[in-house]
Design a protein that fits this description.
Blueprint: H1 2-22, E1 24-27, E2 30-31, E3 37-38, E4 41-44, H2 72-88
Antiparallel strand pairs: 1-4, 2-3
């Protein structure tokens, strides 16, 4: 019985770890219009929920182990402002 329970717990942990990896996506490196190079990196998949991004204050990036700093209220103000600006320009992605 103890062996079966250990196997079930292991499978549950594997499932949780896999779901975290599936929810992320790899971004290839690129060069911005101003000439700045952006290194390849992982990001959370877009889902229109700003609170579950690696950069939301208090969240931890599982790839770097770094905790995002800042004020959640300020973060949301910037996020909402960016969303409003993106609706004004239909060609902006």
């Amino acid at each position: 019985m103890k062996k079966i329970l250990t196997i079930l717990v292991s499978l549950a942990l594997l499932l949780v770890a896999t779901s975290v990896v599936i929810a992320d996506e790899y971004v290839r490196g690129y060069q911005r219009r101003d000439g700045t190079n952006v290194s390849p990196h992982w990001r959370s998949s877009p889902d229109e929920n700003p609170r579950n991004n690696f950069s939301y204050p208090g969240n931890v990036n599982p790839y770097t182990g770094q905790r995002a700093t800042g004020n959640p209220d300020t973060y949301m103000q910037r996020y909402n402002q960016q969303q409003n600006n993106s609706y004004r320009n239909p060609y902006r992605r």
